[in-house]
Amino acid sequence: MIFRVFEKKELKNLFEILAAHNKIVGPVEAGRDKHGEPVYAFSEVSDFNALRLGYTATKLPAKRYFLPFQENLSTYTVEDGEWQKSIDYNVSGPLIFFGLHSCDINALNKLDKVLLHSIYPMPYYAAKRKNMFIIGTDCAPQPFCFCRSMSSDTALHGFDMFITDLGTKYFVEILTDTAYNFLKHIRTEEPKEKDHILYMKTVSARNKKFTAQVDTTDLAKILDMEFQSDVWKHWGDICLSCGTCSNVCPTCYCYGVEETVDIDLKGAKKTKMLHSCNLIDFAEVAGGHNFRPERHSRLKYRYYHKHRGFVEAFEESLCVGCGRCGESCLAGINVPEVIASVRGGKSK
Ligand code: SF4
Ligand code: SF4
After folding, report:
1. Ligand 2 centre and the CA of 279: distance in Å?
2. Does the global pTM surpass 0.90?
3. Residue 79 covered by a domain
4. 150 domain-assigned
5. Which listed ligand is nearest to 150 at the C-alpha?
6. Does residue 230 share a domain with residue 197?
7. Nearest atom, ligand 1, residue 240 CA
């Protein structure tokens, strides 16, 4: 890894160089909540002044740019009496993510393990993922973030460059030659000892602001032991089975596939749609049997996939601790409380 520092005004120059030939996606202010606080979202940005790099957290992750909620996998047309298949990976060109937090970068790293590096990679995801340039940026811990418990508060890979705000300048970690070459177009310099000290002080001050925690010690084993615990019934009874937690989660990737045929029988398509294991039909199979008809069994399944099954497969959890699911849940169900109740062996 190479380190540089640059004056803050140079970031606008970098943005404009990148925006000249690429689409840029970054955090913008999408509105205000009922308390008058800004609501942030990832959106295409063409004006540097619209970027909000000091954003807290976005309600939705950047997932729709590499795992769209709905996507055509293939289309079919009849030509000369024969069905012709056409596949489009739905990539419109390189995409630059300008300002992803560490948790969202780590979420991508986890998705890569399943969708890029498994026995059956998903070409639709791979095509988009390989066309991405990522600029990470430091975050301001929120009361609901427990990324530190999930070792996702820093990113060691999965980005091209990562900038940390030091007040009057940015400290930049450079991980790829693409980033190195882009940075040649702006004025940067070698960090001095005082920059290193300021960087470490900045990171240390940020780390003291994390408040929410999840005790992950032996969690996979504890989940095995507590599979029949009545805490699942407690949380299931208040869960609305709305699926919002999966929609806002940067690591939920489960999907369903639907096939439709045009009414004139001259065309058809196969469409993939992200699904949620909390929805009632998620585990319903042909013939109408539902493997998880109760709310608590579906809610439990989501927790076991994140904190038990994925750990067994990849030696890490499928949760980055962004806290979005708890923040969006109308029933107030959140990971720290659910895990604490399981560890305590009783409902809260
Ligand atoms: S846990 Fe919350 S967000 Fe998730 S399905 Fe249940 S009610 Fe909806
Ligand atoms: S499960 Fe919740 S806290 Fe964990 S990554 Fe998904 S949205 Fe974030």
Report:
1. 17
2. yes
3. no
4. yes
5. 2
6. no
7. 7
Number of domains making up the chain = 2
Alpha helices in 93-156, H assignment, sequence order: 102-115, 123-129
| Mutation to probe ligand 1, out of 144, 248, 303, 329 (largest number of atoms < 8 A from CB) | 329
pLDDT in tens, 106-121: 999 999 999 999 999 9
Proximal ligand: closest to the CA of 238: 1
Whether residue 274 lies inside any domain: the answer is no
pLDDT in tens, 112-149: 999 999 999 999 999 999 999 999 999 999 999 999 99
Residue 247 Cβ contacting ligand 1 at under 6 Å: no
The residue count for the chain? 348
Whole-angstrom Cα distance, residue 22 to residue 25?
10
For helices 295-304 and 335-344, give the axis angle rounded to 10 degrees.
100
d(CA 97, CA 129): 11
Q: Closest residue (by CA) to atom 2 of ligand 2?
A: 325
Q: What are the tens digits of pLDDT across the range 262-320?
A: 998 899 999 999 999 999 999 999 999 999 999 999 999 999 999 999 999 999 999 99
